[in-house]
């Protein structure tokens, strides 16, 4: 009986020792796992730091790329302005070349007329036959007069129709077509009574098309050749506006003052005064 009790007591002691050992083992395992967990966390933190560093590098690279794009945009805008300047100079040179070609053409026509007149003078025979009787001569002359008048009227009608067609295009706002029509009219009728107005409205058409260098030259030519024309004050005013469009206020102000002093009662003078006031406020 006593032996059995001792045996049971020993079993209990063994179980207790075994439980203590298992519990100690578990505690030791937990103590050993905690540094590993911290180590893993540290590794994760390092990885996150590296990712954050990469993202910050990428954001700085993106900023640098944006700066480069902005600089490239500035360079492109500068190139565009230079290109526009070159196009303006090209239009100016092209316009001057057309003027020279026209002047040369007119000169050739003048020379040909002189040569033709000279050849007719040299071709007159020394002895001319006696004229027909006076009565027959008068009848002959009277019969020829209406034919000459009709041809002259026909030519005048064609001239007027051609000018009116160009003016109609101008009034409707078809400025490119109006420029071509006025060019054709001026080349065909350089001495017409409508020539000054054709030159003026062609210049205004080019101004409307924002071809400011070309328009400035044409207004200058118009005011130089047709000083008494009624459109001269407005031509000078539009010439000044052309200089303003080309960022040249000094030349514009000179032209505006010229209108105010020389054509004080004109509508262009009122516009010039207003423009001068704006320029003085801008300073």
List the helices and strands and how they pair.
Layout: H1 2-122, H2 134-171, H3 175-188, H4 195-208, H5 212-225, H6 232-245, H7 249-262, H8 267-282
Helix/strand-derived category reads mainly alpha
- Distance between the amino and carboxyl termini: 126 Å
CATH superfamily of the largest domain: Tetratricopeptide repeat domain
Helix content: over 70%
Shape: elongated
CATH fold group of the largest domain: Serine Threonine Protein Phosphatase 5, Tetratricopeptide repeat
Assign the CATH architecture of the largest domain.
Alpha Horseshoe
Q: What's the structural domain tally?
A: 2
Strand content: under 5%
Low-confidence stretches: 121-147
N-to-C order of helices and strands: HHHHHHHH
Number of helices: 8
Mean pLDDT: 76
Task: Return the CATH class of the largest domain.
Answer: Mainly Alpha
Largest sheet: none
Topology, number of strands: 0
CA-atom Rg in angstroms? 49 Å
List keywords for this structure.
single chain, 283 residues, mainly alpha, Serine Threonine Protein Phosphatase 5, Tetratricopeptide repeat, 2 domains, 8 helices, 0% strand
Tell me briefly what this model is.
By secondary structure, the protein is mainly α. The protein is 87% helix and 0% strand. The N and C termini lie far apart (126 Å).
